Amino acid sequence: MTRAAIVILNYNGRKYLKKFLPSVVTYSSGQPIYVIDNGSTDNSSTFVKSNYPTIHLLQFGENKGFAGGYNEALKQITADIYVLVNNDIEVTSSWLEPILQQMEDDPSIAACQPKLLSYHRKSTFEYAGAAGGFIDFLGFPFCRGRLFQEMEEDHGQYDDITRIFWASGACLFIRSDIFHHLGGFDIDFFAHMEEVDLCWRIQNAGYKVYYNGNSKVYHVGGGTLSKSNPRKTYLNFRNGLSMFVKNEVQGKLWWKIPLRSCFDFIAFLKFSIFDTLPDGFAVLKAHFFFWIKLPHALKKRKHAKKNWLNPRIRIVFIYNNSIVLDYFLRRKKKFMELHPHFLKKIRFGNKFQ
Length: 353
Fold this sequence. Notes:
- By secondary structure, this protein is an alpha/beta fold.
- About 40% of the residues lie in helices and about 20% in strands.
């Protein structure tokens, strides 16, 4: 079987393919490259065929989203490890080998991500993953190197190899057998939060997710949807709620969902007053559709529990405080400013797990 397959999902990203495919081809270390065209209308497929005849091209007639596009494509690709790469990522000479070698040396690692830096500000961490992701006790995600809109400068503070809770879908290394065994991404998500959901399922199944700071890539970010976009707001809030119901340990949902809903209502007010009304109403729309689809989410939870091995082990890597309150009220802007007990738990977990 092929050691690894580099898989790039593309939707109307011809300008990104033209700009960033050269770096992927140059630093692919001989691994096969696949471009998955997700129903583009900008001649992306023609560009790949004409300029990169050695790249494998799979074409879909419609936009299946991040989740559906990858799920459908990866059924047709055989490799030990899938390397999922956004079309707006510039890779570097040493991006591939450190993580492939790490995953080959430790079979318990199901997924891993490199250091994600901003393409436009090379010394700054990028929003979508930074130096590895975590979630708080209500399922709100954050990253080392990025809390909400606050991005840290890269001073080598995260040049480590460490266990994390979730790895970014912008550049995700994942074992093919585990990806398929767990059902891949949740296609109902369409886009946003699907990698956090998958990594949560990976954790519950007893596998590990890692960050490797020896690997580095640069990400443009916001290539398909703007960071200030009502549809993105809707997907993030809807999918976040669904993910929480599917994966949180039993006995806590009855009080955590109402509490999370209170936080989301505050977000609705914040968006409506300080940002835009459409973004605010996107939060309400997300809750409306979440409650309508709640029975479906509970059914998926029941199915996912069949793969739960030791879901308590991942509690070490969940922040048992509110990242929202820490950031907005306590004014904690950097990861290392979070509660010392959490930082100690992470160090302890990496040492003994």
